[in-house]
Amino acid sequence: MQALAAIYTATARQFRRDWMALLFTLLLPLLMAAFFGMVFEGEPRVHVPAMLSLGILWLGVFGTAPPLVQLRELKVFRRIRATPLPPAVLLAGQLAFRVTTGMLQAAVLLAYGMAADGMQVRGGWPALILVVLLGTLLFVALGCLLAAVARTNEAVIALGQVVQFPLMFLSGTLFPLEMLPGFLRPVAAAMPLTYLADALEQVMLGAPGLHPLWLDCTVLGGLGAVCGLLAARLFRWE
Amino acid sequence: MEQPVIRCHSLTKSFGGKRAVDGLSFTVWSGEVFGLLGPNGAGKTTTVECVEGVQRPDGGTVEVLGMTHCAQSARIKARLGVQLQSTGLFPGLTVRETVDLYRSFFPRALPTAEVLRMLGLTEVQKAYPARLSGGWRQRLTLALALVNDPDVLFLDEPTTGLDPAARREVWNMVRDLRARGKAVLLTTHYMEEAAQLCDRVAVIDHGRMLAEGRPADLVRETFAESAIEFALPEGLNPALLQDLPGTARLVVQDGTCTLYSSRVPETVAGLLQVSREQGFPLERFTVRQASLEDLFLRLTGRRLQAETGGAA
After folding, report:
1. For residues A79 and A103, what is the distance between their CA atoms, to the nearest angstrom?
2. Do A85 and B144 touch (CB under 8 A)?
3. Is A3 in Cβ contact with B77 (below 8 Å)?
4. DSSP string computed for A145-167
5. Contact status of B130 with chain A (Cβ, < 8 Å)
6. CA spacing 20 to 30 A to A220: which of A44, B108, B206, B295?
7. In angstroms, what CA-CA distances link B121 with B93, B94, B144?
């Protein structure tokens, strides 16, 4: 328990001193939500769920994968294996920190939505917490998978870009799916980020969904499990 | 009471079909500093990692503090102190935060302030590892090895990159630990370090044991001779020196000619005579006792010191 708390604190400190992780997970989603709110007509709150899903994507791609590769490159994991700390505790501490970060992202964007135009959580708090949790677990698992595949710091950042662009542009987070050419729409509909954005829009805005909420949640959970298992199979400590 | 702390028997480990460790056996006792000497790629690190429980050996047995890693790895690791070269440092944590973190991994640990004081790290406790010089980082990795007041200490090239004063400090620290009955297993490529600090050394290459024993005994057993050294003049055929009186062997490496002789005055007289007749100068001329370095050169065909550049 003491070790878990210490890993959590160490992860938080490392994160706090990592400008790229901070920028992409906390600052950029908020700035983009505010920017879209000012540029486009309509209520500012409609951009909150999409920006939250982007923030959660970045939490995995930039807030999880590069720090893990960095710790591996600096042989921190190798050194820790010579201590009695079980690897599961090391992972759990890292994961726990990112789950709370996902919740913090949701809180920050909600606070903005509430301040900007009195946004309410239409689908209820438990549903919101569940969707944020499933989304965070999915993209953190994806980040672990990227860290497992990439060998160096440079490689993991390049790989992150390759993964994030199709997810970002083919998910209805930056612009509506209807704007896409017909042949891309089924591709976009199948993107993991689409399911997260869809679920968040239903829960936060009470919007009619692309899919039923239970389907969104099942896909998020299922993909998360697949990514997590793959990452566990492929991850190298050194 | 001296007790066996580490027992390795017929240890083997291969990577991709290449044998890194090939049937190594040795015992380290409590209150003893045991040195593993060998060129890069000799299998030192792999051996140490098998004993630490970081690597799983392919064959043979490893017993640490009477336990095996298969059965009780966590209990063994709780009593080990491990120092790897400048590794294990989180980039986003200060010196103090790093020590705190490693303390949390152990069921029993010394107070942070005491660990910092022990290694003279108190003044840099708020610095980040990236800002520290090599010497300070080395102290920090040593601090991490000592947080749990270990019974067995593993030091991987503990004084590489340190200035002579810092090196002596580390040596004194290791001697203190030995005096308190701890066992220390270290790897080094400083001959002086091995000679000064180690009670026993094992010379290994290609994963095999070439020699084991007290440094002075090993040298005496292998060399009844002293070493006469000088810079080999250009154009001189070393074969001319082969038959000087008392010369047991002649080694030429890196422009230095070494004659091992059991009758130093006769050999030197002969050498001076050849020098006069052939008209070549004797530069950097020294006579010294044969050392671990000579032993190492003879056993492995390589100099140990020359490895320093490659390791960094």
Report:
1. 31
2. no
3. no
4. HHHHH--SHHHHHHHHHHHHHHH
5. no
6. A44
7. 15, 11, 12
Which two three-digit tokens encode residue B191? 């001959």
CA geometry: angle at B159 spanning B209 and B229, to 5°?
65
Cβ pair B105:A5 closer than 8 A: no
Q: Kindly report the nearest CA distance between residue A69 and chain B, in angstroms.
A: 12
Q: Would an 8 Å CB–CB cutoff place B53 in contact with chain A?
A: yes
Report the run of H or E that residue B12 belongs to, with start and end. Answer: strand B4-15
CA distance B42 to B45: 8
Task: Tell me how close the Cα of A85 comes to any Cα of chain B, in angstroms.
Answer: 5
- From the list B28, B23, B13, the residue with the least C-alpha distance to B182 is B28
**In degrees rounded to 5, what are phi and psi of residue A100?**
-70, -30
Kindly state the percentage of chain B with pLDDT values over 90.
36
Q: Is B15 part of the contact surface with chain A (CB cutoff 8 Å)?
A: no
Q: How far is CA B152 from CA A94, A145, B6, B184, in A?
A: 30, 36, 9, 6
Q: Using a CB–CB cutoff of 8 Å, tell me whether B107 touches chain A.
A: yes
Q: Do B74 and A84 touch (CB under 8 A)?
A: yes
Q: Which residue of B has its CA nearest to A72?
A: B88
* Structural domains of chain B sorted by starting position, each given as residue range(s) with its CATH number in brackets: 4-214 (3.40.50.300), 224-289 (3.30.70.980)
Tokens of A193: 């980020």
Cβ within 8 Å, pair A75-B74: no
* Backbone torsions φ then ψ of A158, nearest 5 degrees: -65, -45
So what's the ipTM on this one? 0.86
Average pLDDT over residues B181-200: 88
Q: Which two tokens stand for residue A51?
A: 């920006």
Name chain A contacts of B106, Cβ cutoff 8 Å. 83-84
The owner of tokens 């708020």 is B126
| Residue B9 C-alpha, separation from nearest chain A C-alpha, in angstroms | 21
**C-alpha A127: how far from chain center:** 17
Q: What is the pLDDT averaged over residues B18-46?
A: 90
Please count the helices (runs of H) and the strands (runs of E) in chain B.
11, 13
CA distance B80 to A84: 9
Strand bridging mode B247-253 / B283-289: unpaired
Span A179-209, pLDDT tens digits = 888 888 888 888 899 999 999 999 999 888 8
The CA distance from A211 to A199, in Å, is 8
Q: Which domain holds residue A62?
A: 2-234
Do residue A80 and residue B88 have CB atoms under 8 angstroms apart? yes
Alpha-carbon A48 to chain mean position: 14
CB contact under 8 A, A81 and B54: yes
Residue B161 has pLDDT above 80, yes or no: no
Average pLDDT over residues A209-217: 92
Q: Which amino acid is at B46?
A: T
Domain count across chain A: 1
CB contact (8 A) between residue A82 and residue B78: no
Check if the beta carbon of residue A61 is closer than 8 Å to that of residue A193. Answer: no
Å between B155 CA and nearest CA of chain A: 13
